Amino acid sequence: MEMSDNWVINTHSLSKSYKDVEALKSLDLKVAKNSIFGFLGPNGAGKTTTIKLLLGLIRPTSGGGSVFGHDILRDNVEIRKRIGYLAQNPSYYKHMTARETLRFRARFFYTGPKDALENRIAETLEMAGLTNKADRPIKGFSGGELQRLGIAQAQVNHPDLLILDEPAANLDPGGRRDVLEVMERLRKYTTIFYSTHILDDVQQVSDTVAILNHGELVAQAPMEELLAGNDGTIYTVVMEGDPSGAQARVTRREWVSSIDTTSMNGRITWRVHVTDEEVAKSDLLRLILADEDIKVIEFGRKQYELEEVFLRIVEGEENVQY
Amino acid sequence: MSSISSLQIVNESPWRSGFMNMVRKENSLWWGTRKWWVQSLIWFLILNGIVVLLLWIVPAVDKEEAPRASEVLGVFFGFFGALSTFGVMILMQSAIVGEKNSGTAAWIMSNPVSRGAFILAKLIANGIAILTIIVVLQGLIGYMQFFLHGEIVLRPIPFMAALGLQGLHLMFYLTLALVLGTFFNGRGPVIGISIAVLIGQDLLGQLIAMKFPWFPTLMPMRLVDMALPLAQGGTLSSYTPVIATTLMSLSFLLLAIWRFRREEF
């Protein structure tokens, strides 16, 4: 199989303008099969515009792309046959019940015995926790219930690609956890492409992340690489005691490029920038502990939180492409 | 994943993808709710109520004031031509605009549904319902009233042909509402322009007739004018309005599909 077959979504210079506003600028995005792809960005970054372009709901101003190898402009009906989509602010027919809504959507995809269709709908309602509300008109649904219905309708067809625009919006913590569990469960069957601003959720389930800002892709990388940062390997040491002797010993090593020191409440924190991670792993702590007066409280390789990376990239316009 | 095994994947060509499901949904709005009998009752009262009044109640109260059945037939067809047209405008004003504004059109279009199938489903389901409830049902009831009254004898085939002209006239306004719905986002322009077309075509026809005398024969309202003589047993005086209205309705339909394909959600 060629590498290109592995890309479920592949865009090239995809752009969209509304009058004088460039909503999306020359997006080159690749989403691998069976990934959970987190699509991040501040409000107005162009996330929803990208999703609508992929679905054929709007037309690109220039550039293009493909989903499952189908052109997003010419073959968007074929694309939508394999997609489940939850919009940011979804609207359904308010006179329908949840069951009728799922039945209506399922019939775009399936034909066959009525029992089989009803079983599929019942399974989906169960998955979404809507079984006991299945036959109530949805005009009485709360925001959270509508969001659950949105997730249910998006996956009633067992899509090869699930596109979720802010899936955890309007959900309480329990609902958010359920959504993440559903996404984890579906990972082996489907590719999930979802936009969100809840960075904790992204860090928990995503394997790849792209960050969009002002319509431009400013970062796209596997989660591990993104969290490792792009400013070299850094070890963090938190200790008590006088570190001057240890600092002299450590600084002399050629694999140490610099040490940033901060102090708070009698504790000293070092950020040690190293050029050889393997040597640092085996020698750094020994060098520090050679001084018996020093007590090391924390030691480890610096791991960024996604929020930290996100803010650095978005506020600093740092470009990260792996 | 167990239930999927006995289900088959729907395999439709892209241009008509989602059509049958959309028609089923649109039909259910008419026939799966009380809408069909409420509309049937309303149109009975509007179109046949006047016939009941003039043909049965007035003669029972005052025989000398009773109009002749042929005059009542004129009133019936007059009401048919004017009021049912307004009815179509009201019934269809939000068929497209309502879905665009509520966001349901965007949801539908995120499914494997072609833009053409969306418009065609609206036309077919609403067309069938309007023709059945307003034209066929009310026409049949009207015919039965005149038949039972017995003063005039209406031959069934010409009467049906006259109803056909009324039906074609309504289809013109139905397709006009569809195309306006694709161009505008408010109900106002949809119903306002439809009313302007209904009222203004006579004036416009007369103005253009000063230069092109044949022009008024193209106007859809000629269908209404031709319906009464046809119902009374006459012949179709001209095919031109029939052909012109059919072509205009088809043009509206194609224009609606063309415009809806360019709609962004």
Question: How would you describe this protein?
Answer:
The complex is a heterodimer of chains A (322) and B (265). Chain A is of the alpha/beta class. Chain A has two domains: 3-228, Rossmann fold, CATH 3.40.50.300; 233-301, Alpha-Beta Plaits. Chain A is 34% helix and 31% strand. Chain A has eleven helices and 17 strands. Chain A has helices spanning 47-55, 76-80, 98-106, 114-127, 143-155, 173-186, 199-205, 223-228, 244-251, 277-289, 306-316; strands spanning 7-18, 21-27, 30-32, 36-40, 62-67, 70-71, 83-86, 110-111, 161-165, 191-196, 208-213, 216-222, 233-240, 256-264, 267-274, 295-301, 320-321. In chain A, the strands form three sheets. In chain A, strands 7-9-10-4-11-12-17 form a seven-stranded mixed beta sheet, sandwiched between helices. In chain A, strands 1, 2, 3, 5 and 6 form a five-stranded antiparallel beta sheet that branches. In chain A, β9 (161-165), α6 (173-186) and β10 (191-196) form a beta-alpha-beta unit. The longest helix of chain A has 14 residues, at 114-127. The relative contact order of chain B is 0.13. Chain B is built from ten helices and one strand. Chain B is globular, with a radius of gyration of 21 Å. Chain B is mostly helical. The chains are: A alpha/beta (322), B mainly alpha (265). β8 of chain A pairs antiparallel with β1 of chain B.
Defining key terms:
heterodimer; A: 322 residues; alpha/beta; Rossmann fold; 2 domains; 7-stranded mixed sheet; B: 265 residues; globular
Number of E-state strands of chain A: 17
* Structural class label of chain B: mainly alpha
Helix segment count of chain B? 10
The name of the CATH superfamily of the largest domain in chain A reads: P-loop containing nucleotide triphosphate hydrolases
Count of folded domains of chain B: 1
Q: Which sheet architecture does the biggest sheet of chain B show?
A: none
Which H/E pattern describes the elements of chain B? EHHHHHHHHHH
CATH class of the largest domain in chain A: Alpha Beta
Number of strands of chain B: 1
The oligomerization state is heterodimer
Structural class of chain A: alpha/beta
The description of the largest β-sheet of chain A is: 7 strands, mixed
Q: Quick check: average pLDDT of chain A?
A: 88
Rounded to the nearest angstrom, the radius of gyration of chain A is: 24 Å
Number of helices of chain A: 11
Overall mean pLDDT of chain B stands at: 93
- Rg on CA atoms of chain B, Å: 21 Å
Total separate domains of chain A: 2
Helical amount of chain A: 25-40%
Give the overall shape of chain A, derived from the CA principal axes.
elongated
Low-confidence stretches of chain B: none
